[in-house]
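Standup notes
- DV: blocked on the single-chain target, sequence here:
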Amino acid sequence: MDDKERMLGAQCTSGAVPGTVEFEWVNLTPHEINFRPAANTGLCERTIPSVGSARLNSSVEAEGIIRQRRLGCIVGLPEPTPGCIFIASSMVADAANAAGRTDVVAPAGDIRDAQGRITGTSYFVQNVRP
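- DV (later): unblocked, structure below
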């Protein structure tokens, strides 16, 4: 489990569970992810360490206080790997999902402390276009 957080079918179990798929969370954000799913899901709380950083190249064009950002290619996202789910920023996940990648997700279920700071996530999303 060195650089990757292993989950067995996203279930908190100690052995093979019929009908589940084993996969690894690979965190490509620049910070660790505190995953705290809802209590009734049967999923384990865990901290998923960062093992790299995927980002979206961009350039800013034009002058003035409102400028245009031209989005480029994704940098630092490995090729699809059987059994891996890649966690990335929402922008990276959006670009990857638009390109047909179903193995890239972004944290979305913000959990906040009393001061409003994000301390974890309760779920991840894939961006779907209509």
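- Follow-up: The two ends are 37 Å apart (CA to CA).
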